[in-house]
């Protein structure tokens, strides 16, 4: 399974040069950048662990790339994403979010269907990765 999440989810993996170009764009728009990681990418899991603090007052993407590489080295089997926050008046939302790393294998999700009263069908998603405890979910 290939997780599709974020701004560039249907494009091939971004190279470090392409990541730097997107981070440069976010910095030129005065959007602070943050880095997050998780081993549970469920679609409703919108609160990932934050790597450090948001990176304010940067002019060049080199500092962000250094933090991305440090996060990659610490969590080689996690999903890592970059977020850019637009704090402009009337916006105040995530303006850009994209994955910069995924685990070597992505086990996917299971669709659970249950039947309720009056033949009503209810559906739910469950990640196969969550069958293992946190920190051991993406072992080869």
From TrEMBL:
GO biological process: reductive pentose-phosphate cycle
Similarity comment: Belongs to the RuBisCO small chain family.
HAMAP family reported for this sequence: RuBisCO_S_bact
Function, as annotated: RuBisCO catalyzes two reactions: the carboxylation of D-ribulose 1,5-bisphosphate, the primary event in carbon dioxide fixation, as well as the oxidative fragmentation of the pentose substrate. Both reactions occur simultaneously and in competition at the same active site. Although the small subunit is not catalytic it is essential for maximal activity.
Miscellaneous: The basic functional RuBisCO is composed of a large chain homodimer in a 'head-to-tail' conformation. In form I RuBisCO this homodimer is arranged in a barrel-like tetramer with the small subunits forming a tetrameric 'cap' on each end of the 'barrel'.
Subunit and interaction comment: Heterohexadecamer of 8 large and 8 small subunits.
Protein name, per record: Ribulose bisphosphate carboxylase small subunit
